[in-house]
Amino acid sequence: MPEPHPGSAAGPTRDQALDVLARAAYSLSAADSRLRGRATRIPGALSLTHARALRALAEAGSPLSIRQLAAATETTDAATTQLVNGLVAADYVTRERPAHDKRSVLVALTDTGRRRHDERQAILTKALDTAFAHHDTAALDAAVDVLRQLAAIYDRL
């Protein structure tokens, strides 16, 4: 039996659907790049990596080492050090060396950082709720699965 044509009542083929998914993933990556660009040009703008760092610190409730923060943000220690530099400059975090280990650095959320995280989380929650109001929990769970699988694919590329 022949494959249905695009736009036919039977819908797209699996290959076509996967191509649409790949293109949507590219669009998501491009949107992330634009967001990172805004974060470097506009005071107060947060990249997704910045937001992940603030969220990790807020959820931890206590200071994290660079290594712990790197794991939580899924970046390298070196990238996290650069990330922390920007967050310190924005007064979102503090960085200090513990008295017992001068080689370590602990990163803690400031009150300003906590407010910025809470503000960003509220905006994100509202945007997600509005954009996906027509999706039930099962559809959202499927989207989570797709996004996690895409992340795993990207890690293998």
Task: Show the helix and strand layout.
Elements: H1 14-41, H2 48-60, E1 64-65, H3 66-73, H4 77-89, E2 93-96, E3 106-109, H5 111-131, H6 137-156
Helix pairs in contact: 2-3, 2-5, 3-4
Identify the CATH homologous superfamily: Winged helix-like DNA-binding domain superfamily/Winged helix DNA-binding domain
Number of strands: 3
Count of the separate structural domains: 1
- Please state the structural category: mainly alpha
Order of helices and strands: HHEHHEEHH
Report the sheet with the most strands, covering strand number, pairing sense and barrel closure.
3 strands, antiparallel
Strand content: 5-15%
Mean pLDDT: 89
According to CATH, the fold-level topology is: Arc Repressor Mutant, subunit A
Report strand order across the widest sheet.
1-3-2
**Mind telling me the C-alpha Rg?**
20 Å
Name the shape in a single word. Answer: elongated
* Number of H/I helices: 6
Share of residues in helices: 55-70%
Give the CA-CA distance, first to last residue.
34 Å
Describe the structure.
This protein has 157 residues and is mainly alpha-helical. It has one domain: Orthogonal Bundle (Arc Repressor Mutant, subunit A), CATH 1.10.10. The protein contains six helices and three strands; from the N terminus they run H-H-E-H-H-E-E-H-H. A three-stranded antiparallel beta sheet has the order 1-3-2. The radius of gyration is 20 Å and the shape is elongated.
